[in-house]
Amino acid sequence: MNKRASIITAILALGLPAFSQTWIWYPGDYEIWLGNRMNNNRTERGAFFPPFWKTDSHFVTVEFSKDIEVPEDEEITIKTEGRYNVKLDGKLQFGEPSTFTIPAGKHKLNIKVWNQSTPPALYVKGKNVNSDASWKVTNEDKEWIDESGKASDTSATTYAQAGYWNLDDINVPPSTFSLATRPKAHVAIIEKNDGGRLYDFGQETFGQIVLKNPTGNGIVNIYYGESPEEALDIDFCETLDKIEFGKNDVKDMATNSTSRREKDYTLDNSKAFRYVYVKPENGINVEDVAMLYEYAPVEYRGSFKCSDPEINKIWDVGAYTMHLTTREFFIDGIKRDRWVWSGDAVQSYLMNYYLFFDSPTVKRTTRLLRGKDPVTAHINTIMDYTLYWFIGIYDYYLYTGDKDFVKEIYPKMQSMMDYVLSRTNSEGMLEGLTGDWVFVDWADFPMSKQGALSFEQVLLCKSLETMKLCADIVGDKDDALLYGDMATALREKLLPTFWDEKKQALVHNVENGKRSEQVNKFANMFAINFGYFDEPTTESVMENVMLNPDVPAITTPYMRFYELESLCDRGMQRRVLQEMKDYWGGMLREGATSFWEKYNPEDKGTEHLSMYGRPYGKSLCHAWGASPIYLLGRYFLGVEPVKPGYEEFSITPNLGGLKWMEGTVPTPDGEISLYVDGKEIKVKATQGKGYLNIKSKTMPKADYGNFEKVGPNSYRLWIDTDREIKIKYKEI
Amino acid sequence: MNKRASIITAILALGLPAFSQTWIWYPGDYEIWLGNRMNNNRTERGAFFPPFWKTDSHFVTVEFSKDIEVPEDEEITIKTEGRYNVKLDGKLQFGEPSTFTIPAGKHKLNIKVWNQSTPPALYVKGKNVNSDASWKVTNEDKEWIDESGKASDTSATTYAQAGYWNLDDINVPPSTFSLATRPKAHVAIIEKNDGGRLYDFGQETFGQIVLKNPTGNGIVNIYYGESPEEALDIDFCETLDKIEFGKNDVKDMATNSTSRREKDYTLDNSKAFRYVYVKPENGINVEDVAMLYEYAPVEYRGSFKCSDPEINKIWDVGAYTMHLTTREFFIDGIKRDRWVWSGDAVQSYLMNYYLFFDSPTVKRTTRLLRGKDPVTAHINTIMDYTLYWFIGIYDYYLYTGDKDFVKEIYPKMQSMMDYVLSRTNSEGMLEGLTGDWVFVDWADFPMSKQGALSFEQVLLCKSLETMKLCADIVGDKDDALLYGDMATALREKLLPTFWDEKKQALVHNVENGKRSEQVNKFANMFAINFGYFDEPTTESVMENVMLNPDVPAITTPYMRFYELESLCDRGMQRRVLQEMKDYWGGMLREGATSFWEKYNPEDKGTEHLSMYGRPYGKSLCHAWGASPIYLLGRYFLGVEPVKPGYEEFSITPNLGGLKWMEGTVPTPDGEISLYVDGKEIKVKATQGKGYLNIKSKTMPKADYGNFEKVGPNSYRLWIDTDREIKIKYKEI
Question: Which residues pair with A662 in a beta bridge?
């Protein structure tokens, strides 16, 4: 039982009412505000660096309302962020009352809040009347009156269900939210000749530097590095700080903010680093340097262990990479951008389902990425990233079964898709128009971004399917028909437009009416993963594209994610295991303590550090580096939802050459645990029902239920119990 | 020469560079923010009362940029509202520098500012490099880089010219703007039995109450009234305050804000009143009550004086009414809403052209009313008010000739018109849909708001003409063609749809395919004013509608504005003069010191105070009450622009029965002064050229130029000098 559930049980046991209360706001607005605060923590060599895309903001005036009924007079406590008024049954009350008595009976309670700086937020606490997700909220109440004082019909006002998270403490308003911190010490110091000291914190980390007991006056320069080379390269390291200690005050020279001088000084802004090079300028001495490690207090609900210690290390470092990049939102990398990017996020979501299963972070990230209307550009300005945003919602629904979120976000899906469809060409396909960043991947080979890319159309097709799915969920039949038809029509155009019979591949693009000769893996692997090829075509594409050494290699963990997924999808776990050991193992052998933005095994030494034309431009802790978390959970343990929210699951373990493996995959309200070796499988699913699918030389035997044979050496067992099942079988 | 021009002359005389600098921001954003601050000053009996329409907010992150060239190294001073960075030739600089040296030569300077609370604003001061309207600004810079560090093409970024006003002082950031104030004393005190005192400030006024030297502790209740009845009616007065004096602190009980107790206490929020009833609760005594009169420091550039003292009083009270309602923006009335309403504003604009000619206030109001995209409702939720918004731009351009503003606002006109046209019926006409407030007027007779109202279509027609005019100005040929065609087509449909041959009138509406029988003045007088009828039709409508006692009378000064304009337009100044004396003179005889929201001569005593079902709901200082300012300038002095910005004017004086009149009508950069009696006219125009048109029994004689005869007893004189011209003529 989770903490809240157990507290509620305790509350009920005491005979108290079971109502909970929490801070509420206009849905999505808190995320947009918090996202601005987070994205704007990016700095580049001491310069403030906000995103280059449109930054949205919250509705500044919103009205919360609820129809209530109280059996007797009830005093409620009201707290807001912002100026407010209170209307009971249409009558405005004097002032901004912090307590207010509701007379017994049925009432309509409206509280309107205005806040320019941070999202208008409300907390109401009473015996029966409490702020929670059941409140309605609007940003335009349209309650005009006519000359006689008669109120207008307000049926035209658009109400939404109030947004919320887990901010349940009346004394901690949403705008004061911060991540958790704990002190952390360095593991080594290297003295330098110039009076500076290099502190090694032992592994990639994130947080605020603490300067311990500085004595004297002067400037302390702090240079951060994910590598020692970076921290020591004071002219080119990506991030730095300069703190000036005066007699009484301390000044952050980047932000010009000053504070009273105390014994220790903790920097305002968190940074990513493993090393910090601290170099005081004459007259000042710093006794020691420590840090406050800053992190999201998420729970590790997934686990993986196996017979190969290197794979275990890969899983652990992947999990740590994911934890570092799971913050207020899922971000890309912790050093440089610290921004929320849709293409990165959609992978974080999938990894999250096998590690934290933290749905609120998925929802927050989805809301922030979408922002407010009007849509004037692609998400993060990137065409593919807009399309991933839809796909992320598809995945979210499949893993969580959360229809409420689909209902909340659907209107924003509609306006986003309106924007997408307003930019299709005469074939109904997406081409990069002025202002569109057609990204695909950081590839090491030349790739045209002009015309219609097969890759973008495959993503568009899946996005339209997502629209159809969600239209069905919200019960919009017209939309469901429309988007369903469009998805089908586009899918039927993919092969005629891009298929090259000779190359047995989708070619890269059609430009100026001419089909390109280029073949790369991007569109082909997505088409495999989305099931857009028939079986013979898939086989041929595997051979002629995915496993063809003449097709350019992928060098980012980002696209390796999908590439290895394709191989796993074809049962090539043995090969994927080796690729993981080569590629992610390669990073570990280079000393990685978190996984990187890009890894080219051909690079040597400090070549591994450079990117974007800058010697330390590469992020050494990048969410998309953590894909083994997903691959091991989904394709080795083999656990995935078949029906939304794991109402039905499928478990298809594949050792891929490992002697044994064991692990846990979280589900919305439970988990699926597995132990697998060549002879025995133990499985326990505390939520849902579904098949265990295995290959065995002989008919497997279970201590619960009966296996069916479904093909040569293929068997399945229906699992509809939450007790552990033991299976004997014989690995092929 | 205005102050700035003379200062610049002085600067040049000293050999200093002539560059001025001012605070700049994203165009429209400051207005939206300032408008929120102002609109949200409304209170209702101590409750905070924001508007019921969608409240927009500023872009929180914007980038200012300019291509600059400096002959030698130049140090600039930078001040912002918000966190910021500085980029010179694409290179980010350390920190948030308050001074920065630009090396000699050509450069690209970018400064990006983030501010959630108030609009990001920038002030740059150097020898050559200064913040002014020539800077560009964007809210989405789209400057991504590729893997090699190469910057993207930023041609897709939408730049606007920076917004500005007259906030030229680096030490007074835009968010600290406040109106001017000056102390004002009461003229009478009436002691009441219950320990309260009624203070009379002698006339309608606006400002903050000052409680002088309160002694003891306790609560001071302050009840405001535009009438003594209202101030003394503590249960029903529209506005009130409660201030609690403790030993050391003073608490505003409505906002819960506290401050240190000083000798005098000045209330935070300004209020409208003539009377305040101050009633201390036990233990506290207030020595005296004063006020800080709060006002916009606009200049009275227009004037009017004539032989009739009552008309002079009407003009003076009208001018004062206009001054009270000309604040951060043109508002409706000062007591109740204190909001910006488009239908009210469009009249204020016209009066303003004959009084202050303060174009910045027109522009600010136009920007605020429009708000941000997306458009999700009509302006102020009112269909007619959206249409007036377009018409206000038409008028603004005609009076000022300001093409820059048309270029700035045109994209927002387009999206507003998109919204309007998305809501037309199968006839291309506007009907009230769910959520639309179809207002027209506070009429004393029943009037259907269903179906297509002729009134709304006349306004739509003029709005489409405005779109055509502005499309021509911005050089958008497609739009000009489109909107021109639509305006023509709609205009051609007006008579076939609404004309009743028997009644010789446009009927009120068509509802469910059925033409109504109702005739009122609204659509008919607008069609006259817009010149939509031919001459015989106009004459017939005048007789059968406008002068027909069986057609219901108009009882708001709001619609009397247009009604009397129609009469003036037909040369019926003599009648209009009498109507002014009856109607506005009637208010003066009731004791008005400013003009009212509504005046029904049939009402008696306190009936004049009530509206909206509330005993003091009526506003006794309402901008739309001041229309004589416009009527006397435009139709008696007879001055109007013929070509935009008074490049050509026409002067058609009409004494309307007065013995003499004299006055001044401001033009963008000058003024037109007139003296007229039955025998002599003196005219002086310091800007523009144009005709003086007069009726005379004999050929008039001028001491400059020669009159032409243009009809029986009709003469005109071409004026192309800025010296005073004296004319002898003989009034008919």
Answer: A305, A675
